[in-house]
């Protein structure tokens, strides 16, 4: 189906990409007029990067809050907000993957503080105005221009130590943004072009970084692909993302859940989306793009099945009910029975 009509929003965002770009953080925070930036990160490797950032920021730093956790549990969001207020921060520097950026977004949503994002995974949160907070078994997401990072600094050097499994899983998460954008109702000429370009770069370079994390060129290519993928995520809100969202609320790891269900959702939807199938086939250089996505997952050192990431089969009914209630139509209607089948095949 050709696009009959579209609306394409472009939110302002500055993107700095270079090997060694982290050294430009001082001038980028100055550009935003920040004099007390709180650095937000995950514990462990994120905290180590956070310490390095404190040194670069010098007197412009208001402290390091390295307590980010996947899916931004409500208590973690509240603690982050208290830290930003306590430090009298006038801005946030989020360093790490979607977990660190997600916590910065939760703080920005309440305070309006500008975010500088320094992503070190490929999941793409840095490009969006989408926030998410988990309360009990439900993940609540929404959009708010306030949480969109004002500046992104992409520095491939910071990703050289990213473990193969995190590279693969967050890359598959980004690929899921692209695949779903091809059949999304909200697709535009821009999202289609970006998604094709991102898929080409990932298809060539994600296997290379998984095989050799120190491949600087492939790392850079994957970060660029991550930027493009994140940009199309604003339209990717069909079965793939709704399902990953419900599974995330149940506590399943986000990127891995996306990766595991992607071949199944792709096969299900491409059957009703010839245009999406043709674009994906071209980008992947394969006549059977669903099989190509499945083959990609298979070659990566990450969980392959829902059962491997702790999905409780007894929850299939709950998940099917949550998805059916959303009456997803694009590109084909999905019933509770079909969701159960899909979960079964991914299990
Ligand atoms: P993550 O941020 O949870 O990171 C995964 C692991 O990798 C963590 O243990 C982290 O400490 C580690 N890590 C990160 N960078 C590293 C590096 N350079 N070296 C070594 N270790 C490193 O992973 P993710 O998949 O990027 O983020 C998942 C979260 O992001 C989920 O909560 C998801 O919902 C959210 N997300 C949000 C959006 C959005 O637009 N709002 C988009 C995508 C993902």
Description:
- Helix content is 51%, strand content 12%.
- The radius of gyration is 19 Å and the shape is globular.
- It is built from 13 helices and eight strands.
- The protein has a six-stranded parallel sheet, with helices on both faces. The chain has a two-stranded antiparallel ribbon with strand order 6-7.
- Helix 6 packs antiparallel against helix 7, helix 8 packs antiparallel against helix 9 and helix 9 crosses helix 13.
- The two termini are 32 Å apart.
- The protein is an alpha/beta fold.
- The site of nicotinamide-adenine-dinucleotide (NAD) has 31 residues, from helix 2, helix 4, strand 6, helix 5 and helix 9.
Put the structure in a nutshell.
Helix content is 51%, strand content 12%. It is an alpha/beta fold. Nicotinamide-adenine-dinucleotide is lined by residues 42, 44-46, 70-71, 96-100, 102, 120-121, 123-125, 128, 130, 132, 158-159, 161-162, 166, 170, 173, 233, 248, 254-255.
The proportion of strand residues reads: 5-15%
Give me the Rg, rounded. 19 Å
| Main β sheet profile | 6 strands, parallel
Strand arrangement in the largest pleated sheet: 1-8-5-4-2-3
Summarize the amount of helix as a percent range.
40-55%
SSE class: alpha/beta
Distance N terminus to C terminus?
32 Å
**N-to-C SSE string, H for helix and E for strand:** EHEHEHEHEEEEHHHHHHHHH
Number of helical elements? 13
